[in-house]
What does this fold into?
Amino acid sequence: MKDDTLLTHAGRDPQANYGIVNPPVYHASTVLFPTLDALLARGQAAVSYGRYGTPTHFSLEQAMAALERAEGAVILPSGLAAITAALTACVSQGDHILVTDGLYSPTRRFCAEELKRFGVETEYYPPEIGADIAALIRPNTSVVFTESPGSQTFEVQDLPAIAAAAHENGATVINDNTWGAGYYFKPLEKGADIVVHAGTKYPVGHADAMLGMVVYNAASEARIRRSVKNFGGFAGPDDVYLAQRGLRTMGVRLQRHYESGMKIARWLAERPEVLRIMHPAMEDDPGHALWKRDFTGACGLFGFVLDTADRTALSAMLDNMTYFGMGYSWGGYESLLIPTWPEKSRSCYSWAPGGQTMRIHVGLEDPDDLIADLEAGFERLGKAG
Ligand SMILES: *Cc1c(COP(=O)(O)O)cnc(C)c1O
It folds into this structure.
């Protein structure tokens, strides 16, 4: 089954539900057992207590696992909750973990402020390290965490090379695949053991719910399931429904995000106000060869660097955009444009791009309207600068 067919059909069974196309939304805490025998055997029941999930959760888990070619998936209340669940399932006191420096900032904070308290040491490595990561692996290295392309700076990682080195030394490889959305990148096929997602982004797709997923290979299933169960994370059924509904159209949405994103990236590349673009699908991007080898497309999120960091000029541009909104998260249908400061959250390499770093999310609007909006913004930037 191809991915677009899978997104349409995975995780639903209309004939098990009166022929209704979409799975029902179960609201549940207590689940009743008809006999004492059934109560005592509840560990074997498909549904035994609300917190352990209902068919609403199983529907999305099955669809995500199928999309990622995974053994299974578990739903968490946010992308960050999925990341912290995956990490806590894999580390113990005294461990050392290797984490990409191109990291989503809240993951970095979790390592620095929480894992540290439990005696887990985090070491950052440059995203482009590839097979050289072998030199950093210690006997107590339990996890190599990857995120590709990296947040804000969009470096592509050589996941197969990193995974080979990690596995040779018994470490587990976790990949944050929010950018690839499980659609344009299949990390489990490239060596990852566990993949985490901010379902908040493209799976939900409409900026109206928060959700996370951990998908895992067979070897990682027991510890992920155990840890999630013990920590008690639970996503509400209405939000889970929004994500499984969003998945049905994610393929066509992503294709449009990709196409419009490329058109706008190419337009930006010609602008005198733009010093550089960070978009791995652009031919001159340093990560392009790896992206071409491992990815089948690109989402609507990328970066660029403006030739000025002047606050007055930046305000003149950003305060008056017609279609581009300023705000966090991404992956919804709408376009977003914000300044970012990767230089504040890098540990092992410096980011000195010579101007203001920006992050753009190209939404589903007509790209020509978006280009006109950017063009007018650049005019205000130039006049105020
Ligand atoms: C947004 C994001 C997350 C966190 O997702 P939330 O649902 O906001 O918690 C994790 N990783 C990446 C790469 C993200 O962009």
